[in-house]
Amino acid sequence: IHHIVHNGGLYKKPFNEAFEETPMLVAVLTYVGYGVLTLFGYLRDFLRQWKIEKCQNATEREEQKDFVPLYQDFENFYNRNLYMRIRDSWNRPICSVPGAKVDMMERVSHDYNWTFTYTGRVIKDIINMGSYNYLGFAQNTGACQEAAAKVLSQYGAGVCSTRQEMGNLDKHEELEKLIARFLGVESAMAYGMGFATNSMNIPALVGKGCLILSDELNHASLVLGARLSGATIRIFKHNNMQSLEKLLKDAIVHGQPRTRRPWKKILILVEGIYSMEGSIVRLPEVIALKKKYKSYLYLDEAHSIGALGPSGRGVVEYFGLNPEDVDVMMGTFTKSFGAAGGYIGGKKELIDYLRTYSHSAVYATSLSPPVVEQIITSMKCIMGEDGTTFGKECVQQLAENTRYFRRRLKEMGFIIYGNEDSPVVPLMLYMPAKIGAFGREMLKRNIGVVVVGFPATPIIESRARFCLSAAHTKEILDTALKEINEVGDLLQLKYSRHRLVPLLDRPFDETTYEETED
Amino acid sequence: MDIKPVKDYFYWLYYQYLLITCSYVLEPWEQSMFHTVTLTVFAMVVYTAYVFIPIHVRLAFEFFSQIFGGQPESTV
Question: Which parts pass through the membrane (chain B) (predicted)?
Fold first, then answer.
């Protein structure tokens, strides 16, 4: 069921998000599957305990058997008994640039995935549906590569210092001015690692006596940063504005738990695109709530910067809002810019404060110069300042690819989560055996996908996650769709009970309602 | 020589059974153990159905016809 929201005119275009419910039979069968695996897990653990079978995971040495246990045996139960059996779908070594197509080293396992050996063969030209290469800047040829090579020969690769000491290059200053201009904020700061940007800067912004309202499905970096800060954390249901408003009201009315004093700060942590669900945050409503209850907003645009919005400026532009309404705009360069690192943008006073008090700025090595040049070149390309329309075409190509791919998958009958415009497409698998089977069957057909199970997702909702790219041409997408269709029939993955009538030639968002048959 | 599509279909059904019961990921000896147990349980269910269901159906039919019919038809 597609929800079109018109909340008092806050949304300028329809917000189509759908999370189809798990069919009852599929849920029951998934639990049956997990039950069987649990039984066999207990059997194998029993055999390992009584030394009937060799134990291949980590154990203490003989001399230390009487000490306090070092390895938590039961907590790794899932790891030993399910993950190990299907482990060959993860950590696959690739040996070329992760563009639209990628080369992969072939590996086999003779002892059921406990160890791998390389056969020496390289599987060439695998269609890459798993890299976060949204705008196609992961290339080893072209303007970005030449600029990065020039900077590499001029500055070298290492910086050998932190930003505060001797690691502040003129390239970093140039990059930060460019980021501020790109986002439409007053000032910005760049860090070496996206995860560290979140986990090291949230403790600098909030402390004890502050309140953090964090979405249910926030990324581990946000959760870690929130926990490190020492503030009180309250969770609201995923993208649910009623839940957020209730928490805000309770916070303002009741204050801190024992003393009833008002909270020093209330910080709302949301992400632009949630990568496991493919959903987009309801930003107009969050900003309206933030203004009403006078709290601060921290927006993590890791996946949405460059991927959403008519000119790629992220989720703020996608909804047509003012970037100055978001207090802290954070993002990463790993996804759309083909580089590494993260940034935080906001008011000048905030960024100047972070330059002195953020752990990342004081202790972490700054960005490497060729990476900085890659970001500068790709950002200029997206903005159109390098004189070509290449950037704009990439953004448009990504939007077209997203709409086409999602529509075709829905027509085929798969259950797809998330918003219509998000380039992250989760396809539901549910049963644990299908996780391994899907990964292997797709690799046999030369398509590389990322499959995800517990604990990154709830236990029965395992999924395959496709990340679309502007580098994918329509032929590549058609090939991929054909193979996904075949594998879907082979593995019986077409669970959806809402059949979409295939569209002929009309744009998708105008005809959503009339096309859905229940 | 059209036995191949039929064989493929049965192989596909077997594959679905492996996927649904999660025995696809088990090692061969675990799979044999699981198949033995499943087949035993299934055979017992089939045998029980074969022995008991006709008798139960006939008794239920007589019971309900006695209630709704109620005519002087003695079952002596």
Answer: 9-26, 32-53
Strands A447-448 and A117-128: parallel
Chain centre to alpha carbon of residue A9: 29
Q: What are phi and psi of A225, to 5 degrees?
A: -60, -40
pLDDT tens figures, A375-397: 999 999 999 888 888 889 999 99
Question: Distance (Å) from the C-alpha of residue B7 to the closest C-alpha of chain A?
Answer: 15
ipTM of the complex: 0.81
Contact B20 A490 (CB under 8 A): no
Neighbours of A450 (CB within 10 A): 18
Is there a contact between A182 and A384 (Cβ–Cβ < 8 Å)?
A: no
| Range scoring the smallest mean pLDDT among A1-15, A23-37, A131-145, B12-26 | A1-15
Q: What angle do CA A477, A482, A484 make, to 5 degrees?
A: 90
Q: Hey, is A497 helix, strand or coil? A: coil
Interface residue of B9, B14, B15, B22 to substitute, partner A, most A CBs within 10 Å: B22
d(CA B5, CA A428): 29
Geometric angle at alpha carbon A218, from A459 and A100, rounded to 5°? 85
Fold match flag (A20-128+389-497 vs A143-383) = no
What are the respective helix, strand and coil percentages of chain A, to the nearest 5?
40, 15, 40
Whether B17 has a pLDDT exceeding 50, the answer reads: yes
Q: What is the dihedral of CA B7, B8, B9, B15, to 10 degrees?
A: 110
State pLDDT tens for residues A81-133: 888 889 999 999 999 999 889 999 999 999 888 899 999 999 999 999 989 98
Structural domain range at position B49: 3-69
The tally of domains found in chain B comes to 1
Closest CA to A154 of A178, A173, A171: A171
The CATH architecture one would assign to domain A20-128+389-497 is Alpha-Beta Complex (3.90)
Indicate yes or no: pTM above 0.80.
yes
Q: Quick check: is B74 in a domain?
A: no
